[in-house]
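Narrative of activities, Objective 1.

The group set out to show that a structural description can be obtained from nothing but a protein's sequence at a throughput compatible with the screening campaign. Below is one input-output pair from the validation batch, recorded exactly as produced.
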Amino acid sequence: MKFNKKIVEPCASFLYKVFRYALLIGISYVVLFPVIKMISSAFTPAVELYTEESGFLPSRATFENFKNAMFGERAYFNFLKYTKNTATIALLCTLLQVFSCSLVGYGLGRYNFKGNPIVYACVLFTIILPVQTAIIPLYYEYRWFDIFGIGKIIGLFTGEAFTVNILNNYMAFYVPALFGVGLNSGIYIFLFRQFFMSMPRDLEEAAKIDGCNPISIYLRIMIPNIKPVVVTVALLSVIYYWNDALLAGVFSLPGDDNLTLMVALEEMRERQGIGVSQLDAMRKQAEHYAIILTAVTPLMILFLIGQKFFVECMDRSGSKG
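Output recorded for this entry:
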């Protein structure tokens, strides 16, 4: 039995497109459903949130949840204060990480010094190792912080090692970021290394002919040509520090006014529903959705702005290495 190719091929192509789009729509629905439900619940009146009439979209949108939780006279979540604390940590740590990780990535990607593979293997190991396994050593290190062992040398003469407690202040985040061991620094070093390795050697050779030393090559030649990876690392760093609740909770700052957004959200979730009526619990849940939506909105805006650089960086970082 022979089939007419003029009929079979268009039908097969049409069925393939239908299957492909159906699969993509299904996956998108699974991924986006929690986000859409969160946005919908943030604008849903509390009395409607867990009733039989509650649907995918609210019958009437309201801003009462935002007002009652964060901006009204009875607001109990100091959103502006927590956002300021989080932004202070995230932005400065991002600047420090971009500097330190790009410098390490430049050294690993452009110089074949002795021990380069070992150092790179250690960087990869920090990516594999969960941060939870290092919480206790990090706490101990930051509680009695000794810069390059200088405090122990001083202790040989004074009888007691000179250490500094950098817990309960922003230095517990700034110092690791400055030395390239901040939150997820291993990933950023990897991205910088791969990006630097994809750049032609002719750039360095031409710069050396013009009299540039390695520092000048790094600052004047390399940095201006790695804008995609810089934006990508900055974007990822801000997101990770913005969403971090583990390290910010362990190395927490004293006082309720010094909490970060995610730590404050965790504390609010623990207190939610304790000793309140069912209606109050529903109201708190609706307000909780409003707070979460407001907290993640800056990250959504940042990703929309930097997604072009993110895609370019992911494309070029895997080209060589």
